Amino acid sequence: PAFGLFIFTIARDPLRIIILIAGAFFWLVSLLLSSLIWFIAVKASDPQDERLQKGLLIFGVMFSVLLQEAFRFLYYKLLRKAIEGLVALSEDGCSPISIQQMAYVAGVGFGLMSGAFSMINLLADALGPGTVGIHGDSQLYFLTSAFMTMVLIFLHTFWGILFFHGCEHRRWWEIAAVIIMHLTVSGLSFCNPMYVGSLVPSYLLMAAAAAWAYLLSGGSAQNLRRFLLCKC
To answer: Could you tell me which residues come within 8 angstroms of residue 104 by beta carbon, excluding any fewer than 6 positions away?
Structure first.
């Protein structure tokens, strides 16, 4: 369902496709830089010290989150300049795409690239060696990983809307909320293989972020309530 966001809302608009690909590129660069720093830190440390290695892993995850949000801010600044250029070139003085639409497409770009890398890692694990659950561990690894990938794609989409809205209206607490939610969801992954401890809170945060993004995008609380209650 998450990859359907591209097909149904972006694929028919060339400008949105360009913004999505650029957003995916920004996320990819942030991952490359954070991976490089983590790799250097691991190589420079003692590989026999398990406590240190676990600390470096936690540091790598948290640093990666902060770097992703820094690149999201840089991408916002780039798109803001792009809007000014589009307005200057248009005949009617209006941009063909709003900042809200850009926020959504940029969020989808971040989410799809994040989901693509998650699926690649999952497929690499599926190649073996060994069988999941053979030593009594949970056999739901692949299923829960798929659900976690989906929630991250949706969360990046909603975070993009919230983050851009915070930047546009200088509501820094909204930006801080996005960073805190991102850190929380990433930190919850350390609860695995107790998957309930990571999936349930992540989906609750996704529901809260979805409702918040919906309201900031112009939706009304009344319509949201009617939707949740399945009323026409």
So the answer is: 9, 157, 160, 161, 217
225 has a pLDDT exceeding 80: no
Contact of 185 with 68, CB cutoff 8 Å:
no
92 confidence band (pLDDT: 50, 70, 90)? low
* 0.70 surpassed by pTM: yes
> Judging by beta carbons within 10 Å of its beta carbon (0-12, 13-18, 19+), is residue 3 exposed, middle or buried?
middle
Task: Let me know the angle formed at the C-alpha of 170 by 166 and 175, rounded to the nearest 5 degrees.
Answer: 35
pLDDT (tens digit per residue) in 13-66: 888 899 999 999 999 999 999 989 888 888 887 777 778 878 888 888 899 999
Q: Which amino acid is at 150?
A: M
Q: Is 112 exposed, middle or buried (0-12, 13-18, 19+ CB in 10 A)?
A: buried
For residue 57, the model assigns a pLDDT of 84
Kindly report the backbone phi and psi dihedral angles of residue 67, in degrees, each rounded to the nearest multiple of 5, phi listed first. -70, -40
* Separation CA 212–CA 161 (nearest Å): 9
| Backbone angles phi and psi of 127, in degrees to 5 | -70, -15
The alpha helices in the chain, defined as continuous H runs, are 4-9, 14-43, 50-89, 99-126, 141-168, 172-188, 196-216, 221-228
Closest CA relative to residue 165, chosen from 94, 118, 99: 99
What is the residue extent of each domain of the chain?
A: 1-128+135-219
Taking the C-alpha atoms of residue 31 and residue 186, their distance in angstroms, rounded to an integer, is: 14
